[in-house]
Amino acid sequence: MSWREHPDCPRRGSILCSLTDIPDEGGFEVTFGEGKENFRILLLRQGEEFWCYLNNCPHFSLPLNYHPQTFVTLDGLIMCAHHTAFFKFEDGECVDGPCSGTGLTALPTRLIGSQIVFDG
Ligand code: FES
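Above: the input entities. Below: the structure tokens describing the complete assembly.
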């Protein structure tokens, strides 16, 4: 199923968060819907740059974090908490771990003022 068909996918124009809600050099999650199958969005930031992905590891289709808002990041990489796959902030490519060569699914966004808005 494409993320666009997910029943909890936010509508275009939905505000995800402010740029400064995302820790610099870190990750931040925004969710839509309830339960284990809800729509989970991962935002990553370096300074004024940010990236947005589905919070879904391509290895076992699990979120990259165990605990709410707890992401392991290092030098522009984010690590999946389950089996330590590493993904690049800038394009979501898996550069190390059990799903090397795959990648996170990018989600379209735009910045309006200081707000990050879903643009899917
Ligand atoms: S679920 Fe992410 S590395 Fe296995």
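Note for the figure: Residues 58 and 89 are 15 Å apart (CA to CA).
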